[in-house]
Write a structure and sequence with these properties.
Helix content: 25-40%
Distance between the termini: 28 Å
CATH topology of the largest domain: TIM Barrel
Number of domains: 2
Structural class: alpha/beta
Shape: globular
CATH class of the largest domain: Alpha Beta
Radius of gyration: 21 Å
Length: 465
């Protein structure tokens, strides 16, 4: 399979959303690494590409487990006594136990083409499937990590690889279970993995690496802090991610064993800064919410997965009102469309609060535009980016919404964004640019069809295993 083509140097946009509002007939100039060098207005010169729809910055996917795409939709058959997150987790462990490196790359390649077609232009891959099916290490500790990076490069999505530290089987320091042996590392072996992953990302502007601890269940906070310190300059300015307080049972177990709730325990034991991204953080009290806001950490929400697993509802509307930062991700891959994630995020808050348009921080304006702006800003920060949106220095990631679609007829740009999220068609994204490379044309990724056949073969193998 071929990689995406050369980077563009200039793109003319008929209408683009910048921090100052909608700009008409502007030109986005890109440097050789695919970042935005400048945005100029009313430039009549030639450009590499012209986009006639409405253009917004690409949306970051701040939380992905690529391997779970292989079981998306296959865990909806109820088994007595397994109708909660923990029953789903057991099914997921068993289903993914046999994936080999080639199969993981196949699944990720297909998954990432779908993300791009839906408007995600970058992904934070929270990767904890490290070893062979029996738990023995591969000769190259970064074998599976390298396959994810290669899949991302093949299809042209920017990736922040987050190799995951996983040390224990629960809050009380139980050993990992047999099904978890593929995930487990000591802090020492994890640092070797982190170094290997970092070397795979050097000199590639569409790859970066960060640090992830699976959860406080899987990593004691003192081990987390010590490993972060030992990583040193390797993760200077890099993002730090962790699952936390996703399930009520998790909170109860933490309280019983440690006398404190998970988020409060994390803040007591670790130096949580604005480099951190707390995934889910579903079950928080007002004091914990205040800690998150004050630290500047991002909360990573995955509304379709959280609904699918019955996690609960994070108080997102209050969090934004208080000045918090958040973004969205695809997590278990039952949905890979950012518009659908944002729709559900808003609707769940409406149901909880019993009022409308609750995720907009101001008294008036486009709710769709507010949701998109929030997701772009928070998502970019969670992927380690200092700048976001259509501004100089930010990544040259753009998506064009098809303004000529029948369901968007006679609507303003803000109304098109509202319609895309709350009532729009699935094929609203026309063109996608990642780091200056044109990776989706007229709604189709050029590798989508060729990636589909191998993906089907992997699924057939798993279903027959």
């Amino acid at each position: 399979m071929t990689s995406p083509g050369p980077r563009l140097t200039s793109i003319r946009c008929a209408k683009a959303l910048t921090p100052s509002g909608w700009e008409d007939n502007c030109v986005i100039e890109l440097d050789q690494t695919g970042r935005i060098a400048a945005i100029t207005s009313n430039n009549a010169g030639a450009t590499d590409l012209s986009l006639n729809g409405i253009v917004i910055a690409g949306l970051p996917n701040l939380h992905s487990h690529a391997h779970q795409k292989a079981i998306a939709g296959l865990t909806e058959h109820r088994i007595a006594g397994q109708d909660d997150f923990w029953g789903w987790r057991d099914l997921m462990y068993r289903a993914n136990a046999q994936l080999d490196p080639d199969q993981l790359q196949t699944v990720a390649r297909y998954l990432y083409t779908g993300m791009l077609q839906s408007g995600y232009t970058s992904v934070a891959e929270f990767h904890y499937l490290h070893h062979q099916p029996g738990g023995d290490p591969y000769r190259d500790c970064s074998e599976l990590s390298a396959r994810l990076l290669e899949a991302a490069s093949e299809v042209g999505i920017a990736i922040t690889l987050l190799p995951v530290l996983y040390c224990r089987g629960g809050f009380n320091n139980d050993p990992v279970q047999d099904t978890q042996r593929r995930f487990a590392n000591t802090p020492e072996s994890y640092l070797k993995l982190l170094q290997a992953c970092d070397s795979l990302c050097v000199d590639n502007p569409d790859r970066s690496v960060g640090f992830a601890a699976h959860s406080l269940r899987a990593v004691a906070p003192e081990v987390l802090s010590a490993t972060l310190e030992d990583a040193g300059s390797l993760i200077k300015d890099a993002p730090v991610h962790i699952h936390v307080a996703e399930q009520a049972r998790e909170v109860a177990e933490c309280l019983a064993l440690n006398g404190v709730r998970p988020v409060a325990w994390l803040y007591d034991q670790c130096d949580v800064t604005d480099q951190w991204c707390l995934i889910h953080a579903t079950h928080v009290d007002s004091g914990e919410l205040d800690c998150i806001v004050k630290s500047g950490a991002t909360v990573g929400l995955c509304p379709t997965t959280e609904a699918n697993l019955g996690d609960g509802i994070f108080p997102a509307a209050q969090f934004l009102t208080d000045g918090g930062r958040l973004g969205v991700g695809s997590d278990s891959q039952i949905c890979t469309c950012p518009a659908e994630e944002l729709r559900l995020l808003e609707y769940v808050q409406r149901l909880s609060l019993q009022r409308r348009t609750v995720m907009i921080p101001d008294d008036a304006g486009s709710n769709g535009r507010a949701l998109i702006t929030t997701a772009i800003s928070g998502g970019a920060r969670a992927l380690g980016e200092k700048s976001s949106g259509l501004v100089s220095g930010a990544r040259g990631d753009l998506i064009e919404i098809d303004h000529e679609h029948s369901e968007f007829a006679s609507r303003t740009p803000d109304q098109i964004l509202d319609s895309w999220i709350f009532s729009g068609p699935n094929n609203a994204v026309r063109n996608v640019i990642v780091g200056g490379r044109h990776v989706v044309r007229d709604g189709i990724h050029p590798l989508r069809e060729s990636a589909s056949g191998p993906f089907r073969q992997v699924i057939a193998m798993l279903n027959n295993a």
